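User: Hey, my collaborator sent me this sequence without any context and asked if I could get a structure. I don't really work with proteins. Can you help?
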Amino acid sequence: MPERLPGRLFILSGPSGVGKDAAIKRMREQRFSLHFAVTATTRAIREGEVHGVDYLFITPEQFEQMLARDEFLEYANVYGKHYGTPKSQVLPPLASGEDVLLKIDVQGADTVKAKMPQAIRIFLAPPSFHELERRLRERLSESEETLLRRLREAEAEMAHMGEYDYVVYNHSDRLDDAVREIQCVIQRAEENTPA
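Assistant: No problem. I've predicted the 3D structure and written it out in structure-token form, which is a compact way to encode the shape of the chain:
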């Protein structure tokens, strides 16, 4: 039996509210063949979230211990909470030949791409900035100050779209179209992998 090639790393980024979590949830529901890397965070678990599926919810002390042991591929402080990608979520699956999808922000994507240049970056974008603002406002989950900060950060992140290998637009009520496009990117990469 020929030796299996190492898996490929796909990075999914995009501004807050664009639908990254919804796209990943849909791919999981469809049992799309992929290892979905789970990010560790010190923020509180929200209603409907599942530890180990949505995030690895850990204490600030646990995060600091992991940091001291160099267990993160990348990490950041976002709105006063720590987020990090455990190497254990990415490196073992890749080594065993599994493709991995990592959901991280633009800054984290740059860090990972510098360490793993073969990573394929996909930017999930809204059809317009106005549409993104509408989605964030409909969430009704944040103060106006927090919302405005998210919008400023979203604008800064969207300025990096052109640096990505692929841009997929998530139009309202057309999540399945965006998911199909992401899956096509992953399948094309598979077909273009040398034997």
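In plain terms: Helices lie at 20-29, 60-68, 91-95, 106-115, 129-139, 144-158, 175-191. You can pass these tokens on to your collaborator as they are.
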